[in-house]
Specification:
seven-stranded antiparallel beta sheet; Jelly Rolls; 1 helix; RmlC-like_jellyroll; 21 strands; 38% strand; mainly beta
Length: 303
């Protein structure tokens, strides 16, 4: 259910498909409420996960040693890097490339060995699939997935880019366009929507309650604060009912919204509110909207 001014109002929204069984719970990881899982004098790192993905949120302090390294060895698939701060800079190094990337960018890093060299202070977000098994135990909500949500489809990677795997960097400085929803990029493993920021609280008369039948949504707060409103369907079996949720999350935080919960998110901060939506793997409905995926020409749709 979308307001008529929302570009998603043209998407088909079928009725909720309710398979038998209990509903899985949501998960909220508020990085600001806990100590970093890893820290050095200049670098702090927190980890959280969804059913198919892992998020690493890192803050590099101004007094950190020049050239702080974030390494991956034998990475099984593509991963995504976000540099949210405009004045930051990082170098992405693989066996065949060295690419210097300015802040306020999204980067897709190919499989295999890679290094990210932070050239300045700032924040960096990395997104991996759960094939990065060495990171799972670092996740603050790892125990949440002791029992996986059977309603979430397993990750099926999308086709490889015809021009081959390589470092791909995209500026997030993309102005809004009438009829396009956010700033959406995809690769073989992820779809990321770096939503247009809002200034001040969201209009409560223009919310967007909707659901996803078979995939989770990760919502990463990078500025401001949000209330995540969730409601689960009622079924004939009352023992499977769940109470509504109205969870307040500040910055930085990650909310995991399970299928098939009806949900909408309300920006609450007085200043800039910035949210990033994470899907693992890519969404077909968004991909089929003309002009929505900004790098669609590099990543083909499945047959």
């Amino acid at each position: 259910m979308y307001d008529n001014s929302d570009p998603r109002s043209g998407l088909a929204q079928p009725a909720v498909k309710i398979a038998p069984g209990a509903f899985s719970a949501s998960s909220y990881v508020k990085f600001y409420e806990s100590a970093a899982a890893e820290q050095t004098p200049g670098l702090q790192q927190w980890y959280a996960r969804g059913q198919n993905f892992i998020l690493a949120y890192s803050e590099l302090q101004a007094n950190a040693a020049t050239g702080e390294l974030l390494k991956r060895f034998g990475q099984a698939d593509e991963y995504v890097v976000l540099l949210p701060d405009t004045d930051s800079q990082a170098e992405i190094i693989t066996s065949t490339e060295r690419v210097l990337v300015n802040g306020f960018s999204l980067i897709i890093v190919p499989p295999g060995d890679s290094e990210i060299v932070m050239r300045t202070a700032g924040r960096i977000v990395r997104l991996f699939t759960v094939q990065a098994t060495d990171l799972l135990e670092k996740c603050a909500n790892e125990r949440h997935y002791d029992v996986p949500n059977p309603r979430v489809a397993p990750l099926e990677p999308w086709p490889a880019p015809p021009s081959g795997y390589k470092v791909r960097a995209y500026s997030l400085d993309v102005p809004p366009t009438q009829g396009r929803f956010g700033r959406i990029f995809r690769c073989t493993t992820f779809m990321i929507n770096y939503l247009d920021p809002s200034n001040g609280p969201r209009d409560p008369t223009k919310m967007s309650p909707h659901h996803h039948d078979d995939f989770e949504q990760g919502s990463l707060a990078l500025a401001g604060s949000f209330t995540h409103h969730l409601r689960w369907p009622w079924t004939t079996n009352m023992t499977n009912w769940r109470d509504d949720e109205h969870e307040i999350c500040g910055t930085p935080s990650l909310a995991i919204i399970p299928a098939p919960a009806i949900h909408t998110t309300e920006a609450k901060g007085a200043g800039v509110n910035q949210l990033v939506d994470i899907f693992c793997g890519p969404r077909m409905d968004f991909s089929q909207q003309n002009g929505w995926v900004l790098n669609a020409d590099e990543y083909p749709l499945p047959a």
